[in-house]
Structures are given as C-alpha cells and as structure tokens.
Amino acid sequence: MSEPVLATHDLRRSFSQGGVTINVLRGVELTIRPGEIVALLGPSGSGKSTLLQAVGLLEGGFEGSIRINGVEASRLDGDERTRLRADTLGFVYQFHHLLPDFDARENVVLPQLIAGATQDEAIARADELLTRLGLAERLDHRPSKLSGGEQQRVAVARALANRPPLVLADEPTGNLDEKTSDRVFDAFIELTRQEGSAALVATHNERLAARMDRVVRLHEGVLS
Question: Which parts of the sequence belong to the ABC transporter domain (predicted)?
C-alpha cells in the first residue's frame, strides 16, 4: 500500500482567552491516501479551519505529529516548512484571494514561476487548466470582470497548477449560491481526480460531503 500523503498523530492545538485555555484540537488522528478526496465536516467554530492551518503548515503552536508525503513537519525549520508547503500543497479558500491586478491566466502562472517553471511552461499549464475548467474565453479577464463562480474556478486552477499531492480546501464554495456552488464543486472534484491529487475539503454541507470518497467529522476536538 502506498504511503499516506497526509498522516497526523495526536495533533493538538490550544488557545488562551481571558485566562481560560480552550482546547480546539484534542489529539486528531487523520490519514489520507494518494488520490483520496476526504470531506471534513463540522459546524462553524468546531476547529475545521484550525485543522487545515495545522496540516497546511500555515502557523505554529501545534503539538503532535504531521507527516506530509512521509516528511515529519515538526522536525523542520521555517524555511524547510515553507519549501515542503510549496512543493506538496495546494490551497483553495472560501474567498478566492486572486491578485486583482493580474488576469486569470497570470494568477495561475505566478505560483508556477515561483516554483521554478519557465514562462512558456507556466502559460501552457495555466491555459490547459483554465480551459478544462470552462474558462477558455476568460483567460485575459481580471478578477473584477469574472463572476464569483469563475473567480473560484481560477482559484482551483491556481491550487492545482504545481501538481500538488494534496489540496486543502476550506469551504471552497461557501461564498456561492447553491447552483453556482454545485458547478464549482463539480469542476473542483473532476479536475482534482484527473490530476491525481488528494484533497481534504472542510465544509458544513452534508450534501457536498456525501459526494466525496470519505467523510470525517470534527467534534469536540477529535475526529470520528
């Protein structure tokens, strides 16, 4: 059996507020295999975003083990964690966070250039992904000229541009109406599967969660 793309063991995160310790994560155990798409369900405030921040290596303060592609993240210094994140992870957020002064193609090209791709390689890859997402006629449009669903599809293309083994998505359609949400989610799942990436998708939408390979639920800081 192939090595997990993500494995956490006894993952914990606490915050102090007003002299009171709040235990958000209480020993999370999670394993995701290559190509597996997993729904992370839980109500608002349950710690879904905190868990994604932990496995996304976006902030410190966590206890326990996080292994990404077999690499133990807790043993890495800041630069090494940044490199591991860049090499192995893609991110899709509820709000697209596209660069407003760049068009759709440029938003997908930029992370590839940062990762070391040539200009020609990055443009070809951006055009390929955006075309597969139905945006062939919108390549040179800036975010302000795109609909909410189109903006989020650009964000999906950007997340997959560097062929990450694992994509982390935090309520990726939570800012869209139901019809647009379904279309964007369908595009996200289809493209992620085609690319062979695994994904951990935080959502509170049971209907969308049921369409993924597996569902885990975060409750009182632990997964079930």
Answer: 6-224
Mean pLDDT of 50-70: 90
Q: What's the CATH class of domain 6-223? A: alpha beta
- The structure tokens 């997959």 sit at 160
Nearest to 181 by CA among 161, 160, 211: 211
Q: What is the mean pLDDT of residues 10-19?
A: 83
Of 109, 110, 151, 132, whose CA–CA distance to 195 is shortest? 132
Helix (H, G, I), strand (E, B) or coil at 79: helix
| DSSP state at residue 4 | P
Hey, CA dihedral for 65, 70, 75, 76, is it positive or negative? negative
pLDDT above 90 as % of the chain:
62
If you search the block for the tokens 């800041």, which residue do you land on? 78
User: pTM value?
Assistant: 0.92
Q: Where are the domains of the chain?
A: 6-223
Q: Using the 8-state DSSP alphabet, how is residue 218 labeled? A: E
DSSP string for 125-183: HHHHHHHHTT-TT-TT--GGGS-HHHHHHHHHHHHHTT--SEEEEESTTTTS-HHHHHH
pLDDT in tens, 167-220: 999 888 877 788 888 888 888 899 999 999 999 999 888 888 999 999 999 988
